[in-house]
């Protein structure tokens, strides 16, 4: 398949669909509802659309990294962040391991920062596309830490 727009859409779908599946398999449920949460905890309806939009950006970025950057280190960082991203919900919601989830999201945050720092030199558009992701994961890490502290 040579059409770059179709390739990009397939890459985005390749991130979005597993992300949606993980979200469906590992929903907050009663356990999460009973936890103490900080005042800045957003309503549940915010998370799905936010993550869906971010998954599309992550997918577009992945397509760019694989097709334009030619940098194996950047590809490795992109793959690592995706694995960590997909691991967080099973650890937090599936296992109820708030502390372990904080470790996962902290590693994810570091990986995103390393990706942006490396991408800004080889693939600056990808670095920019990851900025909303960096902001959201920073917020998620703060929220995870607050939930851990309160419980």
TrEMBL record:
<keyword id="KW-0812">Transmembrane</keyword>
<keyword id="KW-0472">Membrane</keyword>
<dbReference type="GO" id="GO:0033013">
    <property type="term" value="P:tetrapyrrole metabolic process"/>
</dbReference>
<dbReference type="InterPro" id="IPR038330">
    <property type="entry name" value="TspO/MBR-related_sf"/>
</dbReference>
<feature type="transmembrane region" description="Helical">
    <location>
        <begin position="6"/>
        <end position="26"/>
    </location>
</feature>
<protein>
    <submittedName>
        <fullName>TspO/MBR family protein</fullName>
    </submittedName>
</protein>
<dbReference type="GO" id="GO:0016020">
    <property type="term" value="C:membrane"/>
</dbReference>
<dbReference type="InterPro" id="IPR004307">
    <property type="entry name" value="TspO_MBR"/>
</dbReference>
<feature type="transmembrane region" description="Helical">
    <location>
        <begin position="128"/>
        <end position="148"/>
    </location>
</feature>
<dbReference type="Pfam" id="PF03073">
    <property type="entry name" value="TspO_MBR"/>
</dbReference>
<keyword id="KW-1133">Transmembrane helix</keyword>
<feature type="transmembrane region" description="Helical">
    <location>
        <begin position="86"/>
        <end position="116"/>
    </location>
</feature>
<comment type="similarity">
    <text>Belongs to the TspO/BZRP family.</text>
</comment>
<feature type="transmembrane region" description="Helical">
    <location>
        <begin position="46"/>
        <end position="66"/>
    </location>
</feature>
